[in-house]
Design goal:
The chain has about 120 residues and is of the alpha+beta class. Helices cover about 15% and strands about 35% of the residues. The protein starts with about 30 loop residues before the first strand and ends with a strand.
Length: about 120
């Protein structure tokens, strides 16, 4: 009698210090070469349809190396006109997101690439 073993998920990497999700949050989805999870922080939310966020996807490459893709996300309702106060608020949120983007602390290991 043969039994198939369920492959186990690889260990979780460290969350970036800015991640709003609970520390050690689990894998969220399955990508081509293994599990994926998203680290996310909303820097500023302006009304119902507008937000500036920083996001990092953590997943694995074909070779099995841990890969992280970090980016700044602008979810802005283009049909909305901005006054000077909200324009300055968006600019400030983008500046804060850039600072988080460049912040060290993801504790990148030797088998990890950050792009």
């Amino acid at each position: 009698m043969t039994t198939q073993c369920e492959p186990s998920d690889p260990p979780l990497g460290p969350c970036p210090p800015w991640c709003d999700k609970p520390a050690g949050h689990d894998w969220e989805d399955e990508w081509t070469h293994g599990p994926m999870r998203e680290h996310l922080r909303t820097v500023d939310e302006l009304g119902q349809y507008n937000a500036v966020r920083i996001r990092e996807y953590e997943h694995f490459s074909e070779s099995g190396a841990r890969v992280r893709h970090r980016g700044i996300v602008l979810d802005l309702d283009q049909s909305e006109d901005w006054d000077d106060i909200n324009g300055a608020r968006i600019a400030s949120a983008i500046t804060a997101a850039i600072a988080l983007y460049n912040q060290p602390g993801t504790q990148v290991s030797a088998d990890t690439t950050v792009r």
